[in-house]
UniProtKB/TrEMBL annotation:
Species, as recorded: Nonomuraea turkmeniaca
One MF annotation (Gene Ontology) recorded for this entry: hydrolase activity
InterPro entries hit by this protein: MBL_Glyoxalase_II (IPR051453), Metallo-B-lactamas (IPR001279), RibonucZ/Hydroxyglut_hydro (IPR036866)
PANTHER family, A to Z: HYDROXYACYLGLUTATHIONE HYDROLASE GLOC
UniProt KW keywords: Hydrolase, Metal-binding, Zinc
Domain Metallo-beta-lactamase: 12-197
CDD domains noted in UniProt: metallo-hydrolase-like_MBL-fold
Top-level taxon of the source organism: Bacteria
Cofactor: Zn(2+)
Name of this protein: MBL fold metallo-hydrolase
SMART domains named among the record's database cross-references: Lactamase_B
Pfam families: Lactamase_B
Length: 226
């Protein structure tokens, strides 16, 4: 397994390339602000051929470069339908105050956009990635898991020592707690978490030390649909 990444742009959003090995096909996860050059460097370094871009959610700092990255390689982008509108209207994902900072930014959908569903298994680049719908940060937030390798790309659901904010449009604190309870807490302790920002961690470490996972634990029982 080859996983390489870098923090992109002013938001320091982690962008990843994932492949079975060097010299193989790969997927790209969350190409954020000014990520195009970094992605191309990783593709050259590891001799990779991308077949898809996977988006954990539609916030600007995660999708900024998706159209140019997809266009340069003629590959589709995958996103949950609840966040698809953010690809062409990034200001809709921010508060009125924050949105004014991005007033001059124009984004567009890639030519080929495909929609993610909870529980889907994506067979791409020789990988099998399980899609978990994990709303709460945005309505269409998802995580991607490589269950055979105990690896989770958590986007802005779970960070080392923290979780994603829930005070932006589409966010909801009780909902993100349910996502943590139903999608993170059941995973093995040695599951490696590769988050949208900051350093990697493990489910076991977060279970033991992250106050938000402790708060989420009572929600781990049966829940109503969200």
């Amino acid at each position: 397994m080859l996983i390489a990444g870098f923090p992109a742009g002013a938001f320091q959003t982690n962008c990843y390339v994932v492949a079975p090995a060097a010299g193989a096909e790969c997927v790209i996860v969350d190409p954020g602000q000014d990520a195009t050059e970094g992605v191309e460097e990783l593709l050259r370094e590891h001799r990779l051929k991308p077949v898809a871009v996977l988006l954990t959610h539609g916030h600007l700092d995660h999708v900024w470069s998706v159209a140019p990255v997809c266009g340069a390689r003629d590959v589709p982008a995958w996103i949950h339908p609840e966040d698809r509108h953010l690809l062409s209207d990034p200001a809709a994902g921010w508060s009125d105050t924050s949105a004014s900072l991005f007033g001059g930014i124009t984004l567009s959908e890639p030519d080929d956009v495909r929609e993610l569903t909870d529980g889907a298994v994506l067979k791409l680049a020789g990988l099998e990635l399980v899609v978990d719908h994990t709303p709460g940060h945005t309505r269409g937030s998802v995580s991607f898991r490589l269950p055979d390798d105990d690896i989770m790309f958590s986007g802005d659901l779970l960070f080392a020592g923290s979780i994603g904010r829930s005070d932006l449009p589409g966010g909801d604190y009780p909902t993100i707690l349910r996502s943590l309870a139903t999608k993170c807490l059941p995973l093995p302790d040695d599951t490696v978490v590769l988050p949208g920002h900051g350093p990697q961690t493990t489910i076991g470490r977060e279970r033991a030390t992250n106050p938000y996972l402790k708060e989420a634990a009572p929600h781990a029982g049966p829940t109503r649909g969200i």
